[in-house]
Design brief:
It catalyses: 2 GTP = 3',3'-c-di-GMP + 2 diphosphate. This is diguanylate cyclase. Keywords: Membrane, Transmembrane, Transmembrane helix. It comes from Dyella flava. The chain is α+β, with helices and mostly antiparallel strands and about 375 residues long. It folds into two domains: about 5-220; about 225-380, 2-Layer Sandwich (Alpha-Beta Plaits). The protein is built from 14 helices and seven strands. The strands form two sheets. It has a five-stranded mixed sheet, with helices on both faces. The protein has a two-stranded antiparallel sheet with strand order 4-5. The protein is elongated and about 95 Å long. The protein binds guanosine-5'-triphosphate. Guanosine-5'-triphosphate binds near residues 260, 263, 280 and 302.
Length: about 375
């Protein structure tokens, strides 16, 4: 093996060692896929010295076993991406594919001794793994997240697959292939060096995805109310700003509905604080099933919630609010201290031209107050509404 190729493989081996503590530190995150990536890296760390020792140890170990271990590292890497993206890893199929490289490589070494065919087997396998990862990431990337880690992963996997395929095709075009000749060729050295970068680069892509997911989860935890999962005050404020800007830009309407569960203190007194908590949680589920996809729900505190409905006419907003009030009345929550039924009061306001969010919510709040004063379990609409 030429020194350039040896240096490339030895560098990959060292990078593999450096990746170990980095991946190890991510294990604590509990993110799915990190264990598989760590194992893939370890398998490659074992395989690379066997490849480097070609000529010094038996061909069966340095060719057949070493390349089969590289294939095993590849499928384990794929399984890591699958698990991270919440897709099944399909281990039996992956292990079967990796195991099939053993008879293929043994055949092209001991029955027909063909370097090009061995290269075709190993590069073809690696190219297939890269394409499979690219498809997996493209199909399952989380649309609400940053694009960069996903697009970068798809880009490099396609590039790696192309280089692997090019190396395989290059070898099939060679006529008198001897080990020294083929390994010395510049094209082969360059493509092999690119191939040596696959594992470290894809592990870095995986780590970028994990960091992105951790950042997303941390932001989400700040923006969500712990008990109910509705938006917290802070989370709601930023969503409300975005909806207001969008409404201004598209000159569309925005409805604000504030709802407050009636006599919640007596619900707590009768069914316990745990029972009250369950009512709040189930109420939020109920709201979610009633609202449209683009609507926003925030918990303002206690048993008071605010709902923003973009691009909606007053009549439609009123019927949605009434539907919610009726659904709440029919909703029975089973608690440890018996079955609880409850009602809600609501105040609805449609945004006036140029109105700020606090002016809009103040009018909805005023309507809610009227509903409470008028006896509860009803919906009031602010009379300053347009139309
Ligand atoms: N279980 C539970 N109770 C809460 C939570 N936050 C606030 N509360 C309770 O909600 C109750 C609100 O009571 P009030 O503000 O008097 O309102 P209310 O009894 O619903 O009366 P009206 O709103 O006038 O119909 C208080 O007893 C609070 O302790 C919570 O997270 N969980």
């Amino acid at each position: 093996m030429t020194s350039a190729v040896s240096v490339a493989l030895a560098t990959t081996w060292l990078l593999g060692l450096l990746m170990l503590p980095l991946l190890g530190s991510l294990l604590r995150s509990g993110m799915p896929g990190v264990w598989e990536w760590l194992i893939a890296n370890v398998v490659l760390i074992v395989a690379l010295p066997l490849l480097l020792l070609r000529g010094h140890i038996s061909d069966f170990i340095s060719i057949v076993i070493a390349n089969a271990l590289v294939a095993l590292a590849g499928v384990t890497l794929y399984a890591g991406f699958a698990r991270f993206l919440h897709r099944p890893a399909r281990w039996p199929l992956l292990l079967f594919c990796a195991a099939m490289t053993v008879p293929a490589l043994a055949y092209w070494r001991y029955v027909v001794d063909s370097i090009p065919m061995r290269v075709v087997v190993s590069t073809g396998f690696t190219a297939a793994i890269c394409i499979a990862i690219a498809i997996l990431v493209a199909r399952n990337r989380n649309m609400g997240r940053a694009r960069y880690p996903y697009v970068a992963t798809i880009g490099v996997t396609v590039m790696f697959a192309t280089c692997q395929a090019a190396r395989g095709i290059y070898f099939t075009t060679l006529s008198h292939v001897s080990d020294a000749l083929t390994f010395d060729a510049t094209v082969n050295v360059v493509l092999l060096c690119v191939g040596a970068a696959i594992m470290p680069v894809l592990l870095m892509c995986g780590m970028m995805m994990v960091h992105d997911a951790l950042l997303f989860n941390a932001r989400d935890a700040v923006n969500r109310d712990f008990l109910t999962g509705a938006l917290s005050r802070e989370g709601f404020a930023s969503v409300a700003r975005a909806l207001l800007t969008a409404a201004d830009r598209s000159r569309s309407s925005l409805a604000c509905l504030i709802v407050d569960l009636d006599h919640f203190k007596s619900i707590n007194d009768t069914f316990g604080h745990g029972g009250g908590d369950k009512v709040l949680r189930e109420f939020v589920e109920l709201v979610r099933s009633t609202l449209r996809a683009g609507d926003a729900l925030g918990r303002m505190g206690g048993e008071e919630f605010v709902i923003l409905m973009p691009d909606i006419a007053l009549d439609h907003a009123r019927s949605l609010a009434e539907r919610l009030r009726n659904a709440a009345m029919r909703h029975a929550v089973v608690t440890d201290n018996g079955t609880c039924t409850y009602s809600l009061s609501g105040g609805l306001a449609i945004r006036l031209p140029g109105e700020t969010m606090s002016q809009l919510t103040m009018r909805a709040d005023r309507a809610l107050y009227q509903a409470k004063v008028a006896g509860r379990n009803m919906l009031c609409v602010d009379d300053a509404n347009p139309g």
